[in-house]
Amino acid sequence: MSIQNPVFIPGPTNIPEALRHAMNAPTRDHRAPDFVDLLKPLLADLKPVFGSTTAEVFLYPGTGTGGWEAALTNTLSPGDGVLVARYGMFSHKWIDMAQRHGLDVRVIETPWGEGAPAAAFEAALRADTEGRIKAVLVTHNETATGVRSDIAAVRAAMDAAGHGALLMVDGVSSIASMPFEMDAWGVDLAITGSQKGFMLYAGLGIVAASPKALAAMETACLPRTYFDFRDMLATTKTGGFPYTPPVQLLYGLRTALDMLNDEGLDAVYARHARLAEGVRRAVAAWGLKVVAARPELQSETVTAIYVPEGFDSNALVNHAFRAYGVSFGVGLGEMNGRAFRIGHLGMLTDVMVLSGLATIEMAMADLGYPVTLGTGVAAAQAYYRKTAGQALQAAA
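Now predict its structure.
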């Protein structure tokens, strides 16, 4: 029995051996005086990945979902208005969380395959003359549909409306894999997790908060204990933690940041863009269509692909696993049975991506899909061969 590696799901991602070894560490006393030497540089070195010089970074034992809750509960009060568009499974889940917390959630229903509707946000904010909306929630990279939203356009819409709401962004499947400019885009709270671009086990929710978000914390009244920014700030400034941290994950995060910086963030982003384009060329060669409605919306970390009429995407993903031992992403929410997903983020190379494309091609051929075996792989190969020099130059 083999343990598959790589996987082609949009997270958790493949774990490099260097990170597995970094996390294979004995118990360490997180109350010892030298723990500061691990924690404080981590918090500082995460800021460039978020694209910020001014944010405070918080590390929670949890996942991105915990980061969502931390963002909401530290800055909002019961009954506060929250503006959000539903255009995928993860924007849907964040909506559900906000509703459960007693917030006045104002949902803009948006077709799946589209991104955050900046113009609709602007109109809603202009209509909010009493300033009841306190936050705008945006999923930067919707992994259910393979759609990347334009966060800078959302901020421009908010500014055009002259509205003072906080801008909260889910960057779970984008941060550390795609450019993210927290300060330049005017993001107040950005959330990610350890199991995607950082290539670690799931278990860390990572939140960056702007000075404006920290000021909102002082008057926010939603209940919070475990996720309270104040408890974190009181201890992390001196290198401590308010409760037991996942020390082994912190070791891994240290090594992950070193790996990202050794490659160079611009090279990391260029690699993801190149891998994504090769996948999209394979999809086109198969005669299939991606879920993202327009090219500018296409994600660089995950591609969602419609299956032809009369086929079940879940059956395809299950067959690929059972026949070839390789995992791909199932369709979520409105995409259930209609689309499958190829994750291409984290520790991946063009050679690894080609193995995934070859596998899903075989699975489609097995199930009678109208594809010609080898066409998608050949299209990706041609693109990767043509751009191989660019990849080496970016990595140099």
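The chain has a mean pLDDT of 96.
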